UniProtKB/TrEMBL annotation:
Protein name, per record: Homoserine O-succinyltransferase
Species of origin: Kinneretia aquatilis
Site (Important for acyl-CoA specificity): 322
Catalysed transformations (reactions): L-homoserine + succinyl-CoA = O-succinyl-L-homoserine + CoA
Keyword list, A-Z: Acyltransferase, Amino-acid biosynthesis, Cytoplasm, Methionine biosynthesis, Transferase
Active site: 154 (nucleophile), 320, 353
Annotated Gene Ontology cellular component terms: cytoplasm
Family classification: Belongs to the AB hydrolase superfamily. MetX family.
GO MF annotations, alphabetized: homoserine O-acetyltransferase activity; homoserine O-succinyltransferase activity
Highest rank taxon of the organism: Bacteria
Length: 380
């Protein structure tokens, strides 16, 4: 039996779709599969479902553990479970793996039914809007017509926002954490440098490296190192590593590891290159770049949110310089311009962008109170 506050073992499920999915690019994706997990129980009124949208290198495995696997906790296990801020004794929580991922849903590593070969670089470009449309089909099949809430952090927050704009009648609350209404030029620049590291790796082979039996690990390592720097605050990095040397003395080398921060980044890069797909990295970072709901409204974010109907909770972190509080406040202003019901929490946390994944008591307190409010609305 699981301990109090733990979900225990969970099992991924698969759902196949024969009906083509029309993508924003104009391409169609045929005969695809979506992988998902659910936690808790859908109530008789089917009114307590919460969709959790994942960020760049996460997946459908939001909470719980896998039987027989050590260290297999879901990526938001500290937030979701019995008695936790998103309480699975009260809510039916759904995690869906996005198309183009390398964690089960149809992506570049799968067979293209049109050719009988692995998609590789031929997998179509996907957007946040495409992911939301695919998620809506999964919810249709699960019999969930209206969500109590859509929750996401970072890129997941962008999906939550898009849900509120394109399916306004299908959700009652949008909870967007450490996110932005569009990437800044600096953020796009970081993504491009990471992509170039992968594309210029000699083992990339134009994205068809599977056929050559190789993996562009060098590029993936550098991409992850670049990304990881942006997820941490300067203060957090200083506190954790400072200028601590790996050895007792300087080695006077331009190529060997001298500082502990270098060792940490290389370790993160090595781990990432062992499990993440290079084409998936290109697809997901491009989806980040493309997200910009104001673009179709002459750059006016307030007009973009005119179709919104649900209630909102926005939260940001003071030391998050990649998705800074100023970007969340842009969204808050656009919602207030449309007289939407919006709550906003700006949390003084030292961890940088990664704070949305961590167990900060103030942050979790905000989410606990908000979900209690949602649960209270469902009482007869």
């Amino acid at each position: 039996m699981p301990h109090a506050g733990q979900l225990g073992h969970v099992t991924p499920q698969r759902m196949a779709f024969a009906q083509p999915l029309r993508l924003r690019s104009g391409a169609e994706l045929r005969d695809y599969e979506m992988v998902y997990e659910t936690y808790g129980t859908l109530n008789a009124e089917r009114s307590n479902a919460v969709l959790v949208c994942h960020a760049l290198n996460a997946s459908h495995h939001v909470a719980g553990t896998y039987e027989g696997q050590d260290k297999s906790e879901g990526w938001w296990d500290n937030l979701i479970g019995p008695g936790k801020p998103l309480d699975t004794d009260k809510f039916f929580v759904i995690g869906i793996n996005n198309l183009g991922s390398c964690f089960g849903s149809t992506g570049p590593m799968h067979i293209n039914p049109a050719t009988g070969k692995v998609y590789g670089a031929d997998f179509p470009v996907v957007t946040v809007q495409d992911w939301v449309d695919a998620q809506a089909r999964v919810l249709d099949a699960l019999g969930v017509q209206q969500l109590a809430a859509v929750l996401g952090g970072s890129l997941g927050g962008m999906q939550a926002l898009d849900w509120s704009l394109r399916y306004p009648e299908r959700m009652r609350h949008c909870i967007a954490i450490a996110t932005a209404p569009a990437l800044s030029a600096q953020n796009i620049a970081f993504n491009e440098v990471a992509r170039r590291a992968i594309i210029t790796d000699p083992d990339f082979h134009g994205g068809h490296f599977y056929e050559h039996g190789v993996v562009p690990k060098r590029g993936l390592r550098v991409a992850r190192m670049i990304g990881h720097i942006t997820y941490l605050s300067d203060d957090a990095m200083e506190q954790k590593f400072g200028r601590e040397l790996r050895a007792a003395e300087l080695g006077y080398s331009t190529q060997d590891i001298e500082f502990q921060i270098e060792s940490y980044l290389r370790h993160q890069g090595d781990k990432f290159s062992d499990y993440f797909d290079a084409n998936t990295y290109l697809l997901i970072t491009r989806a980040l770049d493309y997200f910009d709901p104001a673009r179709e409204h002459g750059g006016n974010l307030s007009r973009a949110f005119a179709s919104a109907r649900c209630k909102y909770l926005l939260a940001s972190f003071t030391t998050d310089w990649r998705f800074s509080p100023a970007r969340s406040r842009e969204i808050v202003k656009a919602l207030l311009d449309n007289k939407r019901d919006v709550s906003y929490a700006e949390i003084d946390a030292p961890h940088g962008h990664d704070a949305f994944l961590l167990e900060d008591p103030r942050y979790h307190g905000v989410l606990r109170a908000y979900f209690q409010r949602i649960a209270g609305e469902q009482q007869p």
